[in-house]
Amino acid sequence: MTLVPLPAFADNYIWMLHDGVGAIVVDPGDAKPVTDALVRGNLKLAAILVTHHHADHVGGVDELRNATGAPVYGPAGEVIPEPYQPLAQGDSAQVMGLTFQVLDVPGHTAGHIAYYLPAEAAWDGTPLLFCGDTLFSGGCGRLFEGTPRQMLASLDALAALPADTRVCCAHEYTLGNLRFAQAVEPGNTQLTQYMAQCTALRERGTPTLPSRMGTERSVNPFLRSREASVRQAVQAQAGLAPNAADADVFAALRQWKNEFR
C-alpha cells in the first residue's frame, strides 16, 4: 500500500491509499486531482471516504462516483451527496481488504467522523488515522457547529490512539498552527524542534503530513490544554480563573487561535 497526499485548492490534501491496482480516496473536494492520479497510476477507484459535509471535502464526490461507480462512505449525521453508506461510532468501513473503524469526532461540524485503521489491520503494522478537519498538526478545526466540550472530547479520543498513529489531516496548516503553539508554549523544546523540521519540509515543497500522534501530544496545544504550561498561558491571555473548567480553558484557547495573527 502507498499513502499519497493529493494537493487540492490552496491548502487541502485529498488522501489516496493505493496498492498499484485499486485506490481509496478521502475527502475529495475536487475530482480533478483524483482523476489525474488514477490515470497516472492506472488505478481503479475502489472507495470514497468522507469525514464531513463541507464543500472542500465533498465537492468532487458526485463526479467521481458517476465516473467510476465507487461506493461512498460518510457520516450518518450529515448531508452527504447520495447515495452513500452512512457510518457512525462503532461502525466500520471494509474496503480493499482493510477494515477502518469509525469514530464520532464532533466539534468542527456536528456529525464529523474519522476513520482509524489499527495496527493489526494495517498492511505495515502502523496505525493510520484520517481525521478530516478535527485534528491538524499543531492545531484543530474551528468550531463551526459543535461546542468546545464536544471538540475537547473528540480530541481526547484521538489523542488516546497509539503514539505511532499516522495522522492524516486534510489541510497544510502546520506552520501557521506551530507559530501559534509557540506563542502558547515558548519553552516547549520539542515544539521548537518540530517547527524547524516542518519549516525545512515546506522549504523543499514537501508536505508536513502525515504527522504522528505522539508528536501531536508533545507539541499541539489543543491536545495539551490541561497541561499547566498551556493552562497558565490561556489564563493570562483570557483572564480566566485558576480553577476554570477544562472546557472553558479549551474554549479560550480556541478563541485565542481564532484571533491570532
Task: Give a short summary of the structure.
By secondary structure, the protein is of the alpha/beta class. Helices cover 36% and strands 24% of the residues. A hairpin with a 3-residue loop joins strand 2 and strand 3.
Descriptive overview:
This protein is an alpha/beta fold. It has nine helices and 14 strands. The chain has a six-stranded mixed beta sheet, covered by helices on one side. A six-stranded mixed beta sheet has the order 7-8-9-10-13-14. Strands 11-12 form a two-stranded antiparallel sheet. The mean pLDDT is 98.
Secondary structure: elements and pairs:
Elements: E1 2-8, E2 12-18, E3 22-26, H1 31-41, E4 44-49, H2 55-58, H3 61-68, E5 72-75, E6 85-87, E7 92-95, E8 98-104, E9 113-117, E10 128-132, E11 135-136, E12 139-140, H4 148-159, E13 166-169, H5 174-184, H6 189-203, E14 211-212, H7 213-219, H8 228-238, H9 246-259
Parallel strand pairs: 3-4, 4-5, 5-6, 10-13
Antiparallel strand pairs: 1-2, 2-3, 7-8, 8-9, 9-10, 11-12, 13-14
Helix pairs in contact: 5-6, 8-9
What tags apply to this protein structure?
alpha/beta; 6-stranded mixed β-sheet; 36% helix; 261 residues; globular; 9 helices
* Gyration radius, rounded: 18 Å
Q: Percent helix among the residues?
A: 25-40%
Mean pLDDT: 98
How far do the termini sit from each other? 39 Å
**Neighbour order of strands in the largest sheet:** 1-2-3-4-5-6
Please give the oligomerization state of what you see.
single chain
* SSE succession: EEEHEHHEEEEEEEEHEHHEHHH
Tally the helices: what do you get?
9
Class by SSE composition: alpha/beta
Strand content: 15-25%
